[in-house]
Write a structure and sequence with these properties.
- This protein is of the alpha+beta class.
- Helices cover about 15% and strands about 35% of the residues.
- It is built from two helices and six strands, in the order βαββαβββ.
- Strands 2-3-1-6 form a four-stranded antiparallel β-sheet, with helices on one face.
- The longest helix has 11 residues.
- The model has no long low-confidence stretch (mean pLDDT about 85).
């Protein structure tokens, strides 16, 4: 893929347990991925944010891989955020997982490298 073809940034927030199979699938198709640790959502759970720079036509391929590898799960959770202070809360069955995905246009893309030590400055 040439630098000129990269015009979209896919930002995908996924659960840690979905990361390795997803990375394997993305890298097998030649996608470069930057992985950032993140935390958020109502349950404030650890997650992973992926940054994937692609051409516009590749966005649907990345979405397909995300759908295939980011599973939803049902879990019982207790969250102090959901109960008033001093009250005990019964665990709730909630659906977690899947992926939250943003696609952003890339206005400018550059790969910066240090200047050649032997060349002119």
């Amino acid at each position: 893929m040439t630098r000129d073809a990269i015009d979209r940034l896919v930002v995908a927030i996924v659960q840690q347990q979905d990361l390795e199979p997803l990375l394997t699938a993305l890298r097998a198709r030649g996608y470069g991925v930057t992985v950032l640790a993140s935390t958020g959502g109502l349950l404030r759970r650890a997650s992973v944010t992926l940054l994937i720079a692609v051409a516009a036509w590749q966005v649907r391929v990345v979405f397909k891989l995300l759908r295939e590898h980011c599973q939803t799960r049902e879990e019982y959770v207790t969250s102090p955020m959901l109960a008033p202070e001093g009250f005990e809360i019964t665990p709730l069955l909630v659906e977690v997982g899947g992926a939250v995905v943003f696609v952003l246009p890339i206005v400018r893309y550059e790969h910066l490298t240090p200047p050649d030590a032997t060349g002119p400055r």
